[in-house]
Amino acid sequence: MPTDQEPTYTMKLLQLLLLSTYWGMQIWVTFISSFIMDHNLNRHTYGFIQSRLVPFYLHLGSACAFFNLTIYAVYHPRDIMDDRESFQIFIFFVSVTVAAVNAQWFGQMTSEIMADMHLIEQACGLGQDIGLSSNREAYAKLCESDVKYKQLSRRLWLYRLLSSLCNLCCICCNFYSLSYMAENLVKL
Fold first, then answer.
1. How many helices (H) and strands (E) are present in the chain, helices listed first?
2. How far is it, in rounded angstroms, from Cα 162 to Cα 167?
């Protein structure tokens, strides 16, 4: 049901709210709250909060990306789009796809693996140290002595890497979309 009509004020506002909400969440969760929690909470508290916060963040981000794509697609029929508008649709599509994969697979797997690792760490008296980088020797020894923990650690590293790459991809997509919107503002 694409339309060649000009979007209403409400639709423009909704798209701006969705895009800015997603952007703000990305910046806060990725660059601010993670570093603050890492330096002030013990490993297991940090992991517990992340296991509750990150899935919500990823699913809400997916929804924002989906609705941004939908609103933009409705007001930009394919047969009258120029190259820049086509590229903007592509950017929204990439954001939706990557955010959904991250929410449904990488984020969920990361939380499950982290929970399994916490059980092993608790059994060994670990996890109460502040900061993820403290007491590395004890965790290295645990990796050497426990094969299951070592496998979980490797899987966690892989899924965190993939999730982080997805998150960075979505941040880049949203930055481009915000730039595109700013470029197309008539007045400030």
1. 7, 0
2. 9
CA dist., res. 185 & res. 178, Å (int): 11
DSSP sequence for 135-150: THHHHHHHHHH-HHHH
Q: Which residues pair with 63 in a beta bridge?
A: none
- Which of 148-154's residues contact partners 24+ apart within 8 Å by CB, and which partners? 148/120, 149/117, 149/120, 149/121, 152/113, 152/116, 152/117, 152/120, 153/117
Look over the chain and give the mean of its residue pLDDT values, rounded to a whole number: 89
Place of tokens 């508008």: 85
Q: What is the pLDDT of residue 76?
A: 85
Which two tokens mark 39? 């330096």
